[in-house]
Amino acid sequence: MTAPAPATKQPPVAVAADHGGREAARARARALTSLISRNGAVAVLVLVVLLGALLVPSFGKPDNLRNVALAASFIGIIAAGMTFVIICGGIDLSVGSTYALATIISAMYAPRGSFIAVGYALLAAGLVGLIQGLIIARLRLPAFIVTLAGLTGVRGLVYYITNEGNDHPQIEGFRAFETLGTGSLATIGTPVWIMLVVFAIGWWVLNRTPFGQSVQAVGGNQGAAELMGLPVKRTQTIVYVVSGLCAGLSGILTTALSGGGQEARIGDAYELSAIAAVVIGGTLLSGGVGSMVGTLAGVLLLFVIQNLIVQGANLNSYVQQVVSGGFLLVVVILQAVLSRRAGTADT
Amino acid sequence: MTTPVLAVTSASKRFAGVRALEDVSIELHAGSVHALVGENGAGKSTLIKLITGVYQLDSGSVRLRGEEVAFDSPRSAQRAGIATIYQEVHLAPQLSVARNFFLGREPTRFGSLDLKRMNRNSAEALRRYGIVADVKRPLGELGLGIQQMVAIARAVETDASVVIMDEPTSSLEPREVDLLLDLVAQLKAKDVAIVYVSHKLDEVFRACDTITVLRDGKLVSTGPTSELTRRQLISRMLGRDAAELDESGRTRLGRRELEDGEPVLRAEHLNRRLILEDVSVVVRPGEVVGLAGLLGSGRSETAKAIFGALPLDSGDISVDGKPLTHQTPASRIRQGVAMLPEDRKAEGLIPDMSIRDNIGLAALPQLTRSGLVSRKRVDDIVKTFMTRLRIKAASPLQRVSELSGGNQQKVLLARLLCLNPRVLLLDEPTRGIDVGAKAEVQALVAELAEKGMAVVLISSELEEVVEGSDSVVVLRDGAQLGRLVGDDITEDKIMDLIADAASEQIEASEQIEAEK
Amino acid sequence: MTTLAANLRDRTAIAAWTREHGVYLALLVLVVFNAIATPNFLTVDTVQLLFSQVPPVIIVSLGMALVIGTGGVDLSVGSIMAIASAVLAKFVTGGSPIGVAMLAAVAAGLLVGVFNGLVVAIARVQPIVATLGVLVAGRGIALVITGGALVELFVPVFKDIRLGKFLGIPYVMIVAALLAVAVSFLVRRTAFGYRLLAVGGNRRASVLAGLPVRRTLVVVYAISGTLAAVAGVIATARLRASDPSYIGLLMELTAITAVVVGGTSLTGGRVRILGTVTGAILIQLLETTLVSHNAPDSVARMVEALIIIAAVYIQRPARSSR
């Protein structure tokens, strides 16, 4: 005996149509929140810059703005790479050390020509990312711990190649390389342009290439991405290489700008600034959701606020730290509260 | 008979020495739907994962169109034309529908995603399967049902010759199930070989040509659906005398006469913007009140609201005449209300903890003296309930995540029962557990009610609500459509109520039918 | 076939044992190595030196282990040490008795910890970002309190903290050991311990089981902050000065390393106190060993990185069976 098919009460109906006004209202609320968290940083940036220009005369001067942008570009480039890692559901604590490694290596090899200096520095930084990426993706160890080890180990390496921090390699008379840091286009420094190019490429890769789709899918739900047949391990590995390369590029620009002679402790805690910028930009640490534009706005916000404190209130660097940390807290608390409003019932 | 598209021969797999699958062979044919049924732990998922390259065979072989294959990852299986749709919706919610549709095989122009083509093609493909949706919207903003349909359409569009569906209807509404079975028929017509895994026997009989039964990692039987009765199927799955199951495969729960008494639970005029609209549930001692309705109708939300897990804008809730105030689960538990949450894994179990600690968790305040937990009292309670609920485990110290779904559910029930509640809210108490455990849980619910507890029962299986409830509150879109008592409680009456309220949607669907 | 199976069983058993007890084995290996290769290692002095260096790390790691047990992380511990040190200096230079100053320092840590807890539990910000904000702001606050300068402190009690011994064991080590026992008791025997592990294992389920999740989280971060402040006081005593730009620097990383090397998983739901203490000792001993073998600091860091990776590799969860 075969059970008869139960009488169908309703004919099949398009699923999209059945969740009436309620579902739509909820979706609208969600869409609004994602709009705010994606573009909130941009809006706040515009607001702060406008207010700053109005209230603090010295802030709005072109020279000052140029300097803010130049100062922001180094962390900015690192944060661009970090955005990929965080959207992919990871975190990279090693970028400060990798940045230092590239700074030192590019200065050490500068006498052998710009190409070699830049090439070796990028190679080293990319390798650091590759090794970490492979350990995270293949051995499935937690990114936080692996890159924490990277932070410690690579910093050790930097001290090792600088004779325990006693060597400060200088560049002497290699114009081509230095132009990367000191040159300018339309009065704006080369590093700023490079940062903008990095963000433009980053946006394109994230939103317009299959790899970018993979990054977002893996960050959203790794197990699902695996079962869907996405190249999860490759994607995870590559984002750390990207992050390493970005940190390396930033280090190279630092050497080019300063002409070398950096301390081995350079870039200490840069990972924290980069993560802060990414988070302020609306990228969620839980992975899957984030934006390059937001990160750019986040970095600029951090530096604009620091600059305003110096220009406007003439306060010392301790207070800057307090304000930066406090600002980060305010932003993340707001984000958390907003996203909960729109999300489903909180229990 | 034609050569099978895919043949698994003598497949065996062990995990850490424990047999998961032993000497199982199945054949999949083009244009045929092959059901894979069995209790939890029977080896269905293991078999699927061996086919799709998530696991590797210990021994045996998989042949695709006659050639032996060994996939090292789901990716390579997909490339060979084996598409799989998993139980939970497995897509990227933040990406648009179109991007999800093409995830992993995006068309590009000069290295850049061809968004126009993606939007156009995905909209067309979805329409072909009767789904109308704005493909540019993030998938996560759409309902669960449509997300599942997109996942299926996505898998099917990969030109797969084998499509494996692992409990595809577990989160779908009845009419979404119809839509899905339509889709299965379409695939069948396109000569695709389909594997259909489901707990829902009605669907299996409706949609499948061949049924393979697994039990304890071994093949019990395989054969045409027409040669199998529902009763035979259940007895093969359970491997025990089928006498205790009646003809339809349901447990027998007689309806009892209720004494008139003051209601234990009065939850009246519950309101929450966008979620609940003037819902009232009143339960007398010994009564089981069913909440019926489709997914998203507010049935779970009503339970959560009563339990204090969903803050209300307004509403009066009282237990034994005493009004409840604080809207938190902790205070509700103190006031004699207990809830079994809908999603066992996400909302119920603490996976790393032992059975013992999971059971004792909610009753901690009673088991604690000046901050210290009394080990003896915990052990006593745990022992009592493990025996009473027949929880099968190596020891109370076994990690709860190692148990089968049915035993996990019993652990959660034990957690509630040791609170000795007056009101028991059960949200999907039998979802995703095997037939044997299901019968036990249903009998337990009846027994608890008989002892005077007030029970609220929610199930997406109408027959469970109909069989187990003394009265039924029907919900739709967060509003109460009606209340059925006694002989009025039938599947037909409930569906009529819902269908009447949904008339405007039937019109919408007719439009779509016309477009086809 | 049988031998293969037996072999396999043995190997999984060994792997499981190493996962559970790897840190003790590693410590044993390091001690044996030192006993053989390091001259004068097995002297009372060496042990006492170690025992006077390691307590702040142990104390901070205990709090960190609890936080990690809830599935969170506390990056602010180093800054809390600095704040405690700065508050201590402020009170001492302001003429308060040392006892009051110490209490104020610890209270400051408690306060910051409660703040962390509120941000994590009530505002529901991810712990890593919430405490990152406090890490950045906290050291700034400490610097503002002391005006940015190193404040030398001449307090007789500090000498006792630094050098005092009972039965040959430094006071600070005794304090660390007592705190470890207390925290262990808290986790194993109290309802609070149950709740902590439940929240770490599944927060939503804990809410629905009626547990006071928010209170539990706030208390956990408060404990972490308080313990960090205690460590800050000890560090100040050892330094005989308050130097907010130095005290507790990178302590969050050391503590996380100790906890993870000790076998507590970052995902939450489990806490291993003895493992954490052993992890802290292991790291300290490793540094001591490398120094006594004239390895430069750079090499020590690289070795530490390898140890971290090795530890998590050994302790990685076995492949899920289904």
Automatic annotation (TrEMBL), chain A:
TM regions (residue ranges): 36-56, 68-87, 117-137, 143-162, 183-206, 238-260, 272-305, 317-338
Record-linked Pfam families: BPD_transp_2
Keyword hit for Cell membrane: yes
Keywords for the protein's UniProt record, in alphabetical order: Cell membrane, Membrane, Transmembrane, Transmembrane helix
Membrane topology annotation: Multi-pass membrane protein
Statement: the UniProt record of this protein carries the keyword Transcription: no
Subcellular locations according to the entry: Cell membrane
InterPro entries in the cross-refs: ABC_transp_permease
Name of this protein: ABC transporter permease
Organism: Paractinoplanes globisporus
From TrEMBL, chain B:
Annotated SMART domains: AAA
InterPro entries, per the entry: AAA+_ATPase, ABC_carbohydrate_import_ATPase, ABC_transporter-like_ATP-bd, ABC_transporter-like_CS, P-loop_NTPase
Domain called ABC transporter: residue spans: 6-241, 259-502
Domain of life according to the entry: Bacteria
Keyword Repeat among record annotations: yes
PROSITE patterns named among the record's database cross-references: ABC_TRANSPORTER_1, ABC_TRANSPORTER_2
Keywords attached to this entry: ATP-binding, Nucleotide-binding, Repeat, Transport
UniProt key word ATP-binding: yes
Native species: Paractinoplanes globisporus
Residues spanning the membrane: none
CDD domains with a match to the protein in the record: ABC_Carb_Monos_I, ABC_Carb_Monos_II
Name of protein: Sugar ABC transporter ATP-binding protein
Coiled coil: none
GO molecular function, one term: ATP binding
Automatic annotation (TrEMBL), chain C:
Keywords, in A-Z order: Cell membrane, Membrane, Transmembrane, Transmembrane helix
Keyword Transmembrane attributed: yes
InterPro entries, per the entry: ABC_transp_permease (IPR001851)
Membrane topology: Multi-pass membrane protein
Compartment(s) of residence: Cell membrane
CDD domains noted in UniProt: TM_PBP1_transp_AraH_like
Pfam families cross-referenced by the UniProt entry: BPD_transp_2
Protein name according to UniProt: ABC transporter permease
Organism of derivation: Paractinoplanes globisporus
